[in-house]
Amino acid sequence: xxxxxxxxxxxxxxxxxxxxxxxxxxxxxxxxxxxxxxxxxxxxxxxxxxxxxxxxxxxxxxxxxxxxxxxxxxxxxxxxxxxxxxxxxxxxxxxxxxxxxxxxxxxxxxxxxxxxxxxxxxxxxxxxxxxxxxx
Length: 135
Prior knowledge:
This protein is of the alpha+beta class. 27% of the residues lie in helices and 44% in strands.
């Protein structure tokens, strides 16, 4: 389905991913938070579920030590739109280099549920299955 700007839902969701990567690399927390629904839930292995506020606090704490280097490759495997809801799964590889440390490499898959609110796609649920990258 196209919106007033002529972009279809698939394009809008792909743009969300591009904006997410760019905002993460640039340390733009406001831009990241604008992509997340207020009631979002983040799931990561071995950790308790995180809310949007938890996510914001974690990013602030990590970035307070100095913005780390960030490089990532996200390959969308599937996007399925079901009205005002959509899901996508991706293959993701991330390298984060702290200001005072060695690079940390993680790779795996994510499963994201998005919801369209006021004509804009937002991240509603995210299951991040990244694990340390093996050599």
